[in-house]
Design a protein that fits this description.
Blueprint (H helix, E strand, L loop, with lengths): L12 E10 L4 E8 L3 E13 L6 H12 L13 E7 L4 E12 L2 E12 L3 H4 L3 H20 L4 H22 L23 H13 L4 E5 L2 H12 L4 H4 L19 E5 L10 H5 L6 E4 L4 E4 L3 H21 L26 E2 L6 H9 L8 H28 L9 H7 L5 H14 L3 H5 L7 H9 L2
Parallel strand pairs: 1-3, 7-8, 7-9
Antiparallel strand pairs: 2-3, 2-6, 4-5, 5-6, 9-10, 10-11
């Protein structure tokens, strides 16, 4: 990189973030468009740790200014956040910028929150792009309120910029490999009960598939935790495995919103406290698996999860808007409620939906001889079966509703025609279909909100 880029202003504030291990992120910046002076960088965050590439403050400022060039005529809806992806081959970097409107010093300005990575990290970053963007989008929503009230937006942005740096550093060292050797999983055991109880394995895999492949695995033994993590990741796509993380052997990572499967170590007291807000902000419902006591819990289904998530977000933003001062509220820790919505802190419930698909698969796969490729082939056939069932379900619903023009009222016929009479089987196939067509659960179970108990009653009545 050229080092002949002097900083635009010596007054640019900078925060160094302590990060364990190698952090692939070079810097994060917050910049805004000044109507007189043009693009201005207000704050820079840089990781303090191992880095293969180094950028001076002047180079970071130059790159950050690049993200706002051409945005002076930006025309967007109020509150819109535009995501732009720059690949600057001549500089050897990639820049992900979130462009939004906000108020600084009483004037409306176009602002940009950006992260800068080496171009060589593009294959590593791309699978994690949507996770990072969704997390930064929500902190921008909170930041715009803080700006509107004349408070310091940097303190709010830091609440997500720093965890994103820590997330990328942890994924660099502990992400699940794209190709998993079945010998490192429970499915390679000689007998179904060698590593874990048969019913526990069945319930864990079934709930994992019912919650769209999102699971948290907690325990005191890192080897046991990671073995279950690898086992669950066998049921994910290669891209989803890149968004999954093994646990550390010495200390636990923090829970990170958006990962598909993550292993977490309990503390010395034998417990692990999950942050309510981050768990609720996960894009899909989550399964909670405790390998110490062999318990499996799961969050409500997709449409109820999305409903709770959006209401909580609105409640959180409303509480921020009502704050009288910066000290009145801690934007990252306080659970906000209002008269119309009180979140249920017991978001994990027992696995209520039994299935036959996973039960048959587990019974049959352990009949095959271990140590060969037979079990891997059988697993691939099982996943192909689920994928085909989900495509068939989508096509069935499309035909019954004329591609969404009519409401869906044929749940009884669907369960009979597609051989999904068992609730768990239906939920597994619908979870696969949800990832292919977002919003499927809400469409099938109707526009009015169903609680999981009402939904269960509805399913049992057909």
């Amino acid at each position: 990189m050229s080092s002949g880029c002097p900083p635009q202003s010596p007054a640019v504030a900078k925060s160094e973030v302590p990060v364990e291990g190698e952090c692939p992120l070079l810097a994060a910046t917050f910049a805004y468009w000044d109507n007189i002076l043009g693009p201005r960088v207000r704050h820079i965050w840089t990781p303090k740790g191992e880095q293969r590439m180094f950028l001076s403050d002047g180079e970071v400022t130059f790159l950050a200014n690049h993200t706002l060039n051409g945005e002076i005529l930006r025309s967007a809806e109020c509150g819109a956040v535009d995501v732009k992806f720059f690949v600057l081959a001549e500089k050897g970097v990639i820049i992900v910028s979130l462009i939004f409107d906000g108020e600084l010093k009483g004037d409306k300005n176009t602002c940009a929150l950006s992260i800068i990575l080496p171009q060589t990290e593009l294959p590593f970053y791309l699978p994690l792009h949507s996770i990072c963007v969704e997390r930064l989008k929500h902190v921008i929503r909170k930041g715009r309120i803080w700006m509107q009230k004349g408070y310091n937006i940097i303190s709010v942005l830091s609440l997500e910029v720093v965890p994103v740096m820590e997330l990328l550093a942890s994924m660099k060292s502990h992400s699940v490999p794209e190709d998993i050797n079945i010998k490192d999983t429970v499915l390679n055991d000689d007998d179904i009960g060698d590593s874990c109880h048969e019913d526990f394995l069945h319930k864990a895999v079934s709930s994992h598939l019912q919650t769209c492949g999102c699971s948290i695995v907690v325990g005191s033994n890192p080897e046991k935790v990671n073995k279950i993590v690898r086992t669950l990741c066998l049921f994910l796509t290669p891209a989803e495995r890149k968004c999954s993380r093994l646990c550390r052997t010495d200390s636990s990572f923090k829970y990170d919103t958006g990962l598909f499967v993550q292993g977490l170590l309990k503390d010395s007291t034998g417990s692990f406290v999950l942050p309510f807000r981050q768990v609720l902000y996960s894009p899909y419902p989550t399964t909670h698996i405790d390998v110490d006591i062999n318990t499996v819990k799961q969050m409500p289904p997709c449409h109820e999860h999305t409903y709770n998530q959006r209401r909580y977000m609105r409640s959180e933003l409303s509480a921020l808007w009502k704050a009288d001062s910066e000290e009145d509220i801690a934007p990252d820790t306080v659970i906000h409620t209002d008269e119309s919505f009180t979140p249920d802190l017991n978001i994990f419930q027992d696995v209520l939906h039994k299935d036959t698909l996973v039960k048959s698969f587990i019974d049959e796969v352990f009949m095959l001889k271990p140590g060969l490729s037979l079990r891997s082939t059988y697993l691939a056939q099982f996943l192909l079966l689920l994928h085909r069932k989900s495509l068939t379900l989508l096509k069935y619903i499309e035909d019954e509703t004329q591609k969404g023009k009519k409401p869906f009222r044929s749940l009884r016929n669907l369960k009979t025609d597609l051989d999904l009479a068992v609730e768990g089987d239906l939920y597994i196939v619908m979870a696969f279909a949800e990832k292919l067509r977002a919003g499927l659960h809400s469409f099938v179970f109707g526009k009015p909100f169903y609680t999981s108990m009402q939904e269960r009653d509805a399913l049992m009545s057909f």
